[in-house]
């Protein structure tokens, strides 16, 4: 039975009928009702392609281990929560596990993704082992009073589904599973960065997403909030169209390629203008600007404009001691960048920051 129930009250998030960060403000700006979050999509990661699986091997064992990955993720969740993090983004097709190349617009790489990272069979049926990992993370999030922003599709892997009917079945199957298991602390992010022109299936593009969301509501009668995120890449557009804003429950935007706080603030304000007739939360659930100790910066600009902010740390590559994006991921607070983010979230939310080296051992696991 769920113990953490998420509700939306216009622009605010409530957990168990109480606003998040209740009573908290920072420098006269309200923090109450926001949802600080991090992109942690590799918490569910596994590669079904035997030709690429070894690429993600742990340096100490020489093999990839999906069970170890989720175990170490679960170990860190209380550490993140203690420092004020309330939201985490997962994805059932994860995300790009390789960084470093700038060969594509916005640094989105690579064009060809041979690894098979998907919770779905080709017909849209669900893989039980993925649901098992997801279920354990949702259980712990429920226990800790956290929210999971659960992505269903990623543009590097949606071609794993054979056609648009399979996409529909996959989405309905996941939402049905969430409802059947009384998951009440989830925001469903149907597609990550739906405006990136890499999706195989038209349903997952801005053109198809509006009707797809309407279909899902009719087919599932779910009460879970539905959304689709928009990439912060200027050549693809950084503000969702009005027709998409009108059907989502949360406005999810990304700030990765928006450099400079003035442009970032303009993005947030433009999105909020589209919600004036129907106020909904504005959430940045992916941003890779890390100048936390220098102001102005994206984190504090979001707070000043009453938008939730999400940390996206790609790291520099597949190093186990770097970033949150490239497997094998070290989920601990083992880099100055990670420590800085959590220190500032603790500051903004009135939580107690963890001292470096106190809560994690050499592998980032709670000591």
Secondary structure: helix percent: 25-40%
| Large-scale geometry | globular
Tally of discrete structural domains: 1
Q: Kindly report the CATH topology.
A: TIM Barrel
Quick one: biggest sheet?
Answer: 6 strands, parallel
Protein name: Glycoside hydrolase family 5 domain-containing protein
Organism: Georgenia daeguensis
Describe this structure in words.
The protein is an alpha/beta fold. The chain has one domain (6-349): TIM Barrel (Alpha-Beta Barrel). It is 29% helix and 13% strand. The chain is built from 8 helices and 13 strands. It has helices at residues 66-82, 128-144, 164-180, 206-220, 242-245, 261-274, 298-304, 336-349; strands at 6-9, 12-15, 18-19, 25-26, 29-30, 37-39, 87-91, 147-153, 186-191, 226-227, 251-254, 282-286, 310-311. The strands form 4 sheets. The chain has a 6-stranded parallel β-sheet with strand order 10-9-8-7-6-13, covered by helices on one side. Strands 1-2-3 form a 3-stranded antiparallel β-sheet, with no helix packed on it. A two-stranded antiparallel sheet has the order 4-5. Strand 1 and strand 2 (12-15) form a beta hairpin. Helix 1 (66-82) runs parallel beside helix 2. The chain is globular, with a radius of gyration of 19 Å. It starts with 5 loop residues before the first strand and ends in an 18-residue tail after the last helix. This is Glycoside hydrolase family 5 domain-containing protein.
